[in-house]
Amino acid sequence: MPLLSFLLFVLVSSFTPGLNNFMAMSFANKYGFKKTIEYSLGVAAGFFILTLICSLFNLLLINILPKIELPLTILGVSYMLYLAYKVLLSIDNNSEQRENSDKKLFVIGVLVQFINPKGILYGITVVSTFILPYYTSYFSYVIFSLFLGFIGLISSASWSLFGSFFQKALSQYRMLFNVIMALLLVYSAISIALH
Fold first, then answer.
1. What is the sign of the dihedral through the CA atoms of 55, 147, 101 and 87?
2. Which residue has the higher pLDDT, 161 or 5?
3. What is the total count of domains within the chain?
4. Best CA proximity match to 188, nearest among 90, 104, 117, 108
5. Measured between alpha carbons, how far is 48 from 147 in angstroms, rounded to an integer?
């Protein structure tokens, strides 16, 4: 396997702006870094599961991808636009609502992987390009899935750290921050729809 190409692809794909990273930054800005770690752990777990599924059923996914690509794209774009709407209209919630939302962050982190077109296409690409041509054992699929899940954790935690680091500064400009985050989500949705 071309290790440098693999690592560059993984790092660039994982750390560039996307649904996981935007949501991590927004959650951290809203709830703080410590609470948002649950979301980052959910991203890691969800991406581990997704990558493992891609590894085990890659040929099947490639064969049916043309059939599921349009519904998956519509679902993903719709969800991103819904998130943009929610971010745009979000206000500073009270602590009870924060605690209730905090309980769901791990589940959100896991489930969003299965409607995130960028993540799904990334999983299919990394598996079909870098893993399956060079490795055939189920153990190697698990190890690579764990590694990619860990990279997802580091990536979303980094964006969470950024969101929480600037939490006080951003709270003064919450509406502007919400507008920018909503526009970034809309941009992501449009770029996926036009891809």
1. negative
2. 161
3. 1
4. 117
5. 8
